[in-house]
Design brief:
By secondary structure, the chain is of the alpha+beta class. The chain contains 4 helices and 13 strands. Strands 1, 2, 3, 4, 5, 6, 7, 8, 9, 10, 11, 12 and 13 form a 13-stranded antiparallel sheet that branches. The termini are far apart.
């Protein structure tokens, strides 16, 4: 018998372009998904965080728990901790175990940071005018590529959202999972912060944020760059920070911070793993 011909494969259809109305609706819907995902505590992770600035870099292991994140410092300037550094880190973790109030204070700070981030995300649909600019391929698959310009009618009441004024850039949204894969913006002009009473953000500041599915449809930030010059009250602040988050692994839901410390203590850190995974 002759070979049976394989059925013809239908060509993969590229997502259709979006109208301006569809684009705005997509942005609003997807950013609401991001806000909802920020409330999800049912899928905690352990991961590696590499934070770099011109003068210093650190690498930490982070475990997400019901009591807030717990961190273990494992490298400074891409070199493993010295014996003294390891002793200091062990003492710090023991101090957390001995005084639960220290972890409660950290959790309160995290919750405050999360709420400020939510205020910014909530403002994004109204802060900019979005336009469909094409489809871009990413490791996750195709993403909608949207460009944005400042919305002249944007008048935020939340202090945090005022930082969005005067920015332009691009927002990428994963076509299949409807999640943000990339947000990149640059400040086109200087902007008063806190209606000019608190400070000022200089022209030229940049923000880059990248997200990815790290397994089982769980999305996490994997890369962030923040460059900004600002005046806050009478203090000049210069930020030039890069964050790389990698090696995400699920941990037991409902884990306490004490259990996380024991997990971090038992983690073996080979010298070659002091550098972040690329």
């Amino acid at each position: 018998m002759g070979a049976i011909a394989a059925p013809a494969q239908s060509p993969i259809q590229s997502p259709a372009p979006l109208s301006n109305q569809e684009t705005q609706a997509l942005v609003k819907r997807v950013l609401q998904t991001e806000i909802d995902a920020a409330h999800d505590s049912a899928h905690p992770m352990q991961y590696r965080l590499h934070k770099a600035s011109p003068r210093l870099s650190t690498t930490k292991l982070i475990v997400e728990t019901k009591d807030g994140d717990v961190a273990r410092l494992i490298a400074v300037n891409d070199s493993p901790l010295s014996a003294e550094g390891q002793q200091n880190e062990a003492a710090r973790l023991q101090g957390l175990l001995n005084d639960p109030s220290l972890q409660r204070h950290r959790q309160e700070r995290e919750q405050g940071d999360t709420e400020r981030a939510r205020k910014v995300i909530r403002a994004l649909p109204n802060a900019f005018l979005y336009q469909f600019s094409g489809i871009v391929e990413t490791p996750q698959g195709p993403s909608y590529r949207l460009s944005f310009q400042p919305n002249p009618n944007f008048d935020p009441q939340a202090l945090e959202a005022q930082a969005l004024k005067g920015m332009a850039g691009e927002l990428w949204i994963d076509v299949a999972q409807q999640r943000v894969t990339r947000l990149q913006g640059k400040r086109l002009r200087a902007v008063d912060y806190g209606w000019g009473l608190i400070g000022k953000l200089d022209e030229g500041g940049t923000l880059l944020l990248e997200q990815a599915d790290v397994g089982n449809h769980q999305w996490r930030t994997t890369h962030m760059v923040l460059v900004m010059n600002a005046r806050v009250l009478f203090k000049i602040i210069k930020l030039d920070t890069t964050l790389e988050l990698s090696q995400f692994t699920p941990v037991t839901p409902g884990m306490s911070y004490q259990q996380a410390i024991e997990l971090l203590r038992s983690s073996n850190i080979p010298e070659s793993s002091a550098h972040p995974a690329q």
